[in-house]
């Protein structure tokens, strides 16, 4: 589907095509046994295994220059899917080990590559600094410090991803409070594995304005109504959820029920090559499964543009490009 699209939920390394990771591994003589299947795609059995394969693949990205090359590859693919605005999750744990000086160097390299992609393809990139839940609250604080130090025109948010079954949102409240103070906007992965209560906890204890996934909110309609009332946007990643077996099929995925109940839903790919998806595939599959037409997709993209963490001038530019002729 050739509509202009806004994507709010994309993990930077998770968007790396297998060929890109294999090429870097060859250059640097890194052994990636177990990371790929015989057919060349990423190999993982379940969610916890996915997290370790993700980290193994990411280990070949060693320098700011590697991240610049990754950024170019990722944005070319997004632009080829008609994405006009994208927010990407970046972790200081992977970029310099949460040393603020090193982190700045990675960000400069990524931003230069993003500026070039914006000139060449018109795609706009903004970054969300992300702590990793299974690395624990202390590492999260170091990431939050990096985030607070680099908050600005293109680092616009702070978030948390990773294994939702490790620790409670309130263990990370300090990091969220610090980054809110620094002017960053907040999102948290919740309700992917953790049930409706995990979404409630993220909203109450971290005071986020967006939820990554959030799909299990559907098991508690009073919670969905609270999300509607508080205008909290869900970054829904249907292909990811089906691929990781959160739901057995797209037909059983709650995105349509959430939308019908009035929740602010948006559509993203999460880690596209891991989940054998692209933004175009997501749209085609949703259109086929739920009979969504262009009006529905226009509504989703309008919701996404309004929930984006960018400044108001950028938002206006994006909204203008979404206007249909
Ligand atoms: O959204 C998917 C699945 N649910 C939770 N976490 C992740 C997803 N994709 C990547 N992640 C995590 C993972 O721990 O985010 C981190 C990875 O190490 C990267 S954030 C730049
Ligand atoms: Zn995610």
TrEMBL record:
Adenosine deaminase domain residues: 4-323
Gene3D superfamilies xrefs: Metal-dependent hydrolases
GO molecular function, one term: hydrolase activity, acting on carbon-nitrogen (but not peptide) bonds, in cyclic amidines
Coiled coil start-end: none
Keyword field contains rRNA-binding: no
Family: Belongs to the metallo-dependent hydrolases superfamily. Adenosine and AMP deaminases family.
Protein name (Swiss-Prot/TrEMBL): Adenosine deaminase
Organism: Marivita geojedonensis
Taxonomic path: Bacteria, Pseudomonadati, Pseudomonadota, Alphaproteobacteria, Rhodobacterales
């Amino acid at each position: 589907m050739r509509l202009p699209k806004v994507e709010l939920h994309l993990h930077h390394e998770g968007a790396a095509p297998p060929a890109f990771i294999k090429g870097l591994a060859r250059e640097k003589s890194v052994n990636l046994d177990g990371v790929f299947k015989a057919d060349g795609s990423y190999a993982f059995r379940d969610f916890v295994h996915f997290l370790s394969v993700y980290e193994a693949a990411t280990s070949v990205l060693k320098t700011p220059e590697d991240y610049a090359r990754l950024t170019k590859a990722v944005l070319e693919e997004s632009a080829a899917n008609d994405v006009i605005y994208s927010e990407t999750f970046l972790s200081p744990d992977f970029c310099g080990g949460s040393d603020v000086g090193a982190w700045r160097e990675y960000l400069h390299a990524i931003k230069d590559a993003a500026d070039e992609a914006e000139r060449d393809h018109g795609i706009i990139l903004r970054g969300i600094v992300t702590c990793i839940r299974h690395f624990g609250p202390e590492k999260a604080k170091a990431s939050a410090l990096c985030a607070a130090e680099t908050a600005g025109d293109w680092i616009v948010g702070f978030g948390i991803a990773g294994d939702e079954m490790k620790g409670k949102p309130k263990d990370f409240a300090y990091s969220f409070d610090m980054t809110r103070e620094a002017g960053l906007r907040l999102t948290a992965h919740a309700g992917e594995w953790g049930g409706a209560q995990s979404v409630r906890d993220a909203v109450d204890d971290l005071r986020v304005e967006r939820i990554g996934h959030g799909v299990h909110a559907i098991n508690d309609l009073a919670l969905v109504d609270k999300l509607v009332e508080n205008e909290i946007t869900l970054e829904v990643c249907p292909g990811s959820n089906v691929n990781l077996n959160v739901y057995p099929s797209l037909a059983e995925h709650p995105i349509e029920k959430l939308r019908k109940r009035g929740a602010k839903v948006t559509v993203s790919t999460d880690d596209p090559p891991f989940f054998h998806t692209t933004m175009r595939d997501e749209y085609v599959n949703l259109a086929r499964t739920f009979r969504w037409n262009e009006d529905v997709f226009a509504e989703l993209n309008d919701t996404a543009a309004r929930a984006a963490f960018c400044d108001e001038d950028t938002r206006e530019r994006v909204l203008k490009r979404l206007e249909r002729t």
